[in-house]
Amino acid sequence: MVPHDLPPVSAPVITIDGIIENDATAWLREVDARSGLRRTKTALTRADSLRSFLNYVLAQNTSIRGATNAHIIGYIRTRTTGPKRVSGNTIASDRSTIRGFYEWLRDERGIPLPITLDELRTPNGPVLSMREGRGIPKASAAQTPLEPPQIDELLAAATTRNNGQNYTAARDAAFISLGLACGARADTLAHLLTYEIPESPRSTLRNPSPIEGDLIEMRLPAAVSKTNREVVLPAIRRHLDRVRRFINPETGARRHQLDRWTPPENAIRVATGPTAKFRGIVDTDGNRRSFNTMTAEDRRRLVTETNEPAMIFLTVHRGRPLSERSAEEIVSTVSAEAEHRAEQAGTVFPHVTTHDLRGTYATHLAALFYFGVPTSAGRDLDGKPHRVNIQSAVKMASTGLGHINARTTQLYIQQVGLMAGQYSINAFLGREQR
């Protein structure tokens, strides 16, 4: 085979059947060049939105240049309604991408705009706004919370995909479980370290069989989270246990992926792991590195005392840390399998994204608070677990997501009430099959 003679690229490239789409790629190169310090992140976000829109117009038997206003309205409609709807934030990104691309296509290629631009008055003066899709609030995020039986269906699709004959199945199930356990965003999930998963309590002479609570304190670091602040939250042990089994160095499936792994040339090697007084590591150069401030790049370079990658999730073929895009594709691919199985069985399964895992975490955690599951061994004056009303439970769960927004919080209240009335506490904790 003769290798392709392809020049190196510094910005995202979009292809159709292996052939570069010149207009989309040229625009992304310009976006990357003018995006400053966040150039790579911005260009990748725009590339994801443009790729999704391109797939839609191709399915309509047209090209991205040939897309009409009706195509754009149809695309926005598919993204805001039905089982595959996405969050309001994603729609906002889609609209910015579509507008920016077609304005560039008009200026650079002379293609008429298939969108309508209106001049709106703002406190800062008049601005041009794309009419198509305007008015969709960001708080309209899909956030479809899964019911307990649906969680079992999703994890079954992950575990038994490809007949469970490869390590991808165990990794994907562990990744989804971690999202359900703590509600972190895809970027955070992809960069968490094995050190940051709370360990199971160890037996002692005085307590040979320690009992762990159903909710466990967990910390999400600031440096790789959208909020730029550390979040301390109650993780749901039912889901966290699957992650623990996956990373177990003696019996977990993750150990098989390490055969393909080689340390990076600029590795940060751990000399001392975390202690009760310091949540971080000390490297072989004597530098103290806190988990809370360690960047994504540092985490990818981190090598443990036993010469293994410190990041939890790796690619199957080369043993490299997952990218954020690959992390998001894990949930989407497994969801597609669950949707296919449901269709064969004559039922319906909702399309699930990492965003929906966050919604599921918040809703189920609020339900557990409502049922009175304590985050510790604490009891009230009558010796019973503390109970809260639904509104307070939702706010507590929203804190775990790293943000408190009254409008977003309201989206959960009805769903929590319906689920708490339909399922028992045992169903939420995985103690029974319904």
TrEMBL record:
Against InterPro entries, the record matches this protein to: DNA_brk_join_enz, Integrase-like_cat_sf, Integrase_recombinase_N, Integrase_SAM-like_N, Tyrosine_recombinase_XerCD
Species of origin:
Curtobacterium citri
Similarity comment text for this entry: Belongs to the 'phage' integrase family.
Enumerate the UniProt keywords alphabetically. Answer: DNA recombination, DNA-binding
Please state every residue range assigned to the domain named Integrase SAM-like N-terminal. 40-108
Record-given protein name:
Tyrosine-type recombinase/integrase
Q: Matching Pfam families, A to Z?
A: Phage_int_SAM_1
